[in-house]
TrEMBL record:
PROSITE patterns reported in the protein's UniProt record: TAT
Organism: Saccharothrix variisporea
Entry protein name: Carbohydrate ABC transporter substrate-binding protein (CUT1 family)
Entry similarity comment: Belongs to the bacterial solute-binding protein 1 family.
Annotated InterPro entries: Bact_solute-bd_prot1, TAT_signal
Signal peptide: none
Length: 559
């Protein structure tokens, strides 16, 4: 349980943070300016810098990926752990170097120089001095290192903390340029890195150069979905395909709500529904001019609908009071039947929590639909990777090559010999195989953190819930059904570092606070409009001007 619990904690945390970040925009606002690397360019120079994409054919998934539009690919599904594990790296990648590595860890930090670290160093052919740091304070720990210019040799810098880290300023000053080693077909020297999607490398680009090594990359990155209790709704004869508009959804809320029985249809859904109305994720371009989401009628229509939902009596009182911490408990117990959430929620841990409350528990998600039930359904893509590691600029070329060879080992595909060691440790010491599934021993629970080495490099995301195949089948089927709805927003995967004033306006905290009160029924749509007017005069208009002059006019939209 130790390994799986730690992995699920990580997935829950990152899905939540990444989902919110994707819903609120895709820009890395780096206060203080980012120097010459202030914007991730989008031109021929960057295209030439991007590593070639060569998918891995090492293992055939039980449920293959489905392609959508450009850079859209559903995650493959696995119903079992491979019994015949294949080695994807010949020989030992390292040449005996010694390096320091820092990653965030949401969990108990294992003992230094433990058996797992020793086994990894032996397999990698280097000594990696792993120094996991408290993930809860990571965004304050790293700036101390960068201010002193004392970064480790290898460090994980999640993109959602780009403003804290000033990634745009670090690129090329403290972080190594990997373009000479990975651009184009050069990446083929590292086949497992070549199997990472192109979009994931874009997420680690500044200017026209590659800096970041992706972890947990995916071709299906969206903020989240509107979930429902599939078991309860289907028992009532209600299926997801009956919901084709927000009118259908509101009517369903009326049908499902029974306050006397302690059941309300809805928990919070705003973050995962507002773009269904045709509102942009954050920006759109109309007739060559940049328009912010707050300036659109479609967004105001979404705000109005959610205000009416809050006043309808169909939302749980605790949700209206802003109690998000217990939303999962309400959903599991059947006190709420519909709620928004990040896709990382749809996993084995969720299933186990759900069936503990109700043996029939089954999560489902409504397909992406247009609010009016007539327009083309659209859901906006987030970055293909939000966790990227970086190498220290002071490393010598031969050291960078050695660490890239190590990264290639760490990025070995699911179920391979390398993957098994990286994620589960040594068989017989850190895990045993039970019914074909790796199960942690006591030593494994203490020493193996599946979010340590994979934070330096990891293979593309897959979907697996060993022992609960229905979850994998449901989730992969939902991704496949919605793949064609994924659409790139303007400035997709373009890293942008703003001056502090623009970063503050981009956060739009006053509007966000008023908006939250509105979709909880405490303030009106007029209050939101007033907050937007104040935001525009207090910095919003200057933000739009800065984005127009420094990004749109120079680099286009990234489409």
């Amino acid at each position: 349980m130790g390994i799986e619990l730690n992995r699920r904690r990580f997935l829950g945390i990152t899905a939540s943070v990444a989902g919110i970040a994707a819903a609120e925009g895709l820009l890395s606002a780096c206060g203080g300016g980012g120097g010459k690397q202030a914007v991730g360019a989008n031109g021929e120079a960057l295209k030439a810098a991007l590593p070639s994409y060569v998918p891995s054919t090492t293992l055939t998934p039980d449920i293959p990926s489905v392609a959508g539009g450009a850079d859209v690919l559903t995650d493959p599904g696995f119903l079992k752990y491979p019994a015949n594990r294949v080695a994807t790296v010949s020989g030992i990648p390292g040449r005996g170097g010694r390096y320091s590595a820092v990653t965030p860890l949401w969990g108990t930090i294992p003992p230094a120089d433990n058996q797992f670290y020793q086994a990894m160093n032996k397999a990698l052919g280097v000594t990696l001095d792993m120094k996991p740091a408290d993930g809860n304070n990571y965004n304050t720990i790293v700036p101390t290192m960068t201010a002193a210019k004392k970064l480790p040799d290898w460090i994980q810098l999640p993109s959602w903390w780009g403003s804290s880290f000033n990634l745009g300023g670090l690129a090329g000053t403290q972080l190594a340029d990997l373009t000479p080693y990975l651009a184009g077909d050069k990446v083929k020297k590292y086949p497992n890195l070549a199997a990472l999607p192109t979009g994931a490398w874009r997420a680690g680009a500044w200017g026209d150069k590659i800096y970041g090594i992706p972890s947990f990359s995916t071709g299906f990155s969206i903020a989240g979905a509107t979930f429902y209790r599939r078991d309860i709704l289907e028992a009532k004869g209600i299926t997801a395909d009956q919901v084709k508009s927000v009118e259908d959804l509101m009517n369903l809320g009326k049908e499902l709500t029974d306050p006397k029985a302690g059941v309300w249809a809805f928990d919070d859904v705003y973050r995962y529904l507002y773009t269904h109305f045709g509102a942009p994720l954050k920006w759109r371009v109309d007739n060559g001019k940049l328009v912010h989401v707050f300036e659109t009628e479609e967004w105001l229509e979404a705000v109005d609908w959610h205000y009416r939902l809050a006043k309808s009596g169909y939302m749980h009182p605790d949700a209206l009071a802003g109690d998000n911490a217990n939303a999962g408990t309400r959903f599991y117990s059947g006190k709420t039947l519909i709620g928004g959430g990040g896709l990382g929620t749809w996993n084995l841990a969720d299933h186990q929590s759900g069936v503990a409350a109700n043996p029939n528990y089954r999560r489902g998600a409504f397909d992406i639909f247009a609010a009016d039930g007539k327009s083309k359904p659209v859901v906006y893509m987030g970055e293909s990777a939000r966790m990227l590691s970086y190498l220290n600029i002071n490393l010598k070329p031969e050291q960078i090559e050695e660490l890239l060879a190590v990264a290639n080992y760490l990025a070995a595909p699911y179920g391979s010999v390398e993957y098994t060691l990286v994620n589960f440790g040594v068989e017989g010491v850190h895990h045993t195989m039970e019914n074909g599934v790796p199960k942690a021993t006591e030593a494994g629970q203490k020493e193996v953190q599946a979010t340590t080495y994979p934070f330096l490099a990891a293979p593309p995301s897959i979907i697996q819930n060993l022992g609960a195949d229905q979850i994998t089948k449901d989730y992969t089927a939902w991704q496949a059904a919605n793949a064609k709805a994924l659409t790139k927003p303007p400035f997709w995967s373009m890293n942008i570092a703003m001056p502090q004033a623009q970063a503050t306006a981009d956060a739009a905290q006053q509007v966000e606070d008023t908006l939250k009160d509105c979709y909880h029924g405490k303030k009106t749509v007029d209050d939101v409009k007033a907050a937007v007017a104040s935001w525009k005069s207090g910095g919003g208009d200057r933000l739009k001007q800065w984005m127009t002059e420094n990004v749109l006019d120079k680099f286009g939209t990234g489409q």
